[in-house]
Amino acid sequence: MHPAPSVIVFTSISGLGFGLFMWLGLGFPSFTGMAAFGVYFMAYALSVGGLLSSVLHLANKKNAIYAFSQWQTSWLSREGILSVIALFTFAPMAIAQIFFASDSLNWLGPIGSALALITVFSTSMIYAQLKTIPRWHMPLTPVLYLTYAIAGGALLSMQAKVAGVLLIVVLALQWAYWTMGDKRLAETGSDKGTATGLGSIGKVRMFESAHTARNYILDEMFFTVGRKHSQKLRMISTVLIGVVPVLMLLLLPVSMPMAIAALLIHVAGVLTSRWLFFAEAEHVVSLYYSRG
Amino acid sequence: MTKLPSESKKKLGLVIDLDTCVGCHGCVTACKGWNTQNYGAPLSDIDAYGADPEGTFLNRVFNYEIEPKDGGPAQAVHFPKSCLHCEDAPCVTVCPTGASYKRAEDGIVLVNEDRCIGCGLCAWSCPYGARELDRDAGVMKKCTLCVDRIYNENLPEEDRVPACVRTCPAGARHFGDLGDPESDVSKLVAERGGMDLMPEQGTKPVNKYLPPRPKDTLDKTPPKALETVAEEPKGFLGWLDKALEKL
């Protein structure tokens, strides 16, 4: 799949933002005044920024409002609606903490935390629901997205030790995801024979493509540059997502500059692994095109 | 809107005969022509006369080669591919806006361009590559089964079929109600063993493909190797040949 920057930024940044909201809702950390403003600003900037980035991906933005209408069937619609509800749930609590130094609305927190997690789950289901992309179509996809969000949120809310442990879980799940994902296309049993229905006659091979020029399908569903370097990129993102931040968080004394450095390295790793998430994903339509 | 209707009784669709198709791309051109002037945004071409041309098409003809299992000669099959108007159309349920829908009355899958946001998720969910986002209009385009022809009483009756079917010079494309077991297309499918593409995706396509008929089995014994007709060069050429080989 084409790794569009808008979608990579959307899934990475909004995941971090809602992950931070999840911790804020549970009172980690529980600030008032300017400090509260600081953390809420970060949470809103990341989640709203991510959502706005996803709008950049739309080819016909003027109809965007309709995307809130199909919650009964569409995960993309559910994601949009849930994100707005989650963001509004936190608003009164944030206002009370920032301007009135009051914890009277903190009971909204756990509700907001649950909504933030469900929002991240919906984001992951946009991808996990697609049977046409076997690498995404597995239960581990939502688990991975949720774990990334919770670990990233812990890092953002400056819980060094908790974040360190959670990042180890992220690394384990990420490697399981890559290893299982590599076998997914073969496991579907789809090949040129089933795609064309001609497999019962013999071995099917593409003789001539339907078009000599590029088209939307090729641009969107085919991306091979990433696969060439996928092993190297997996190692790079492993080091950035987890290895370096975990060592910093668990071994070094906790300090603000160290936490910020760990966070920035982690975010670079998340962006790399999200790039791979798209670039490595094979779409079954490729069976109609590839030579094999 | 993006909820699939309970099974429609009428299932309009195409039956494509892979035995008869000659790969002329006439259906591709007729489709582009009709659908550029009628339903929805025109099918745009970008940089049509430049170095990197591309365009939106709703129907494209591939060509596959099959090496038969019994070791006979390879066989080429022309393979037109367009929307299969699936009964369990994943492109409909993933749509966040309700733009993508399946009609209860005849099973045609359509896009309401006034609601489409061009997110592309429906194209991602389609195993067949049947949907293309128009780069000029920014909305998703797909086969409409020429919904603006088949019910159009302003057209002569013989033209009330999809443009690809009307234009096919080989008679390789058939249009009809696949929900009615007594229809001509259903009988054709039954008789010729019509098949689904990628049935393991669970989309339950309405369109069917008729497999190529078995090839003649005459002359099973391979032809005798030809006798060599080239002779040893003589005279000046013979000398030149020997001289060059010695170098």
From TrEMBL, chain A:
Keywords tagged on the record: Membrane, Transmembrane, Transmembrane helix
Q: Which residues form a coiled coil?
A: none
Q: Where are the transmembrane segments?
A: 7-28, 34-59, 80-101, 107-128, 140-156, 162-180, 233-252, 258-277
> What is one Pfam family matched by this protein?
DmsC
Q: What is this protein called?
A: DMSO reductase
Automatic annotation (TrEMBL), chain B:
Q: Where is this region: Disordered?
A: 196-222
Instruction: Report the CDD domains cross-referenced here.
Output: PsrB (cd10551)
Name of this chain's protein? Ferredoxin
- For the keyword Iron-sulfur, the answer is yes
Q: Where is the composition biased (Basic and acidic residues)?
A: 213-222
At the top level, the lineage of the source is Bacteria
Q: Which Pfam families match?
A: Fer4_11 (PF13247), Fer4_4 (PF12800)
Query: Per its UniProt record, what PANTHER family does this chain match?
Result: PROTEIN NRFC (PTHR43177), PROTEIN NRFC HOMOLOG (PTHR43177:SF3)
InterPro entries registered for this protein in UniProt: 4Fe4S_Fe-S-bd, 4Fe4S_Fe_S_CS, ET_IronSulfur_Cluster-Binding
Domain 4Fe-4S ferredoxin-type, residue spans: 12-42, 74-105, 107-136
Which keywords has UniProt assigned to this entry? Answer: 4Fe-4S, Iron, Iron-sulfur, Metal-binding
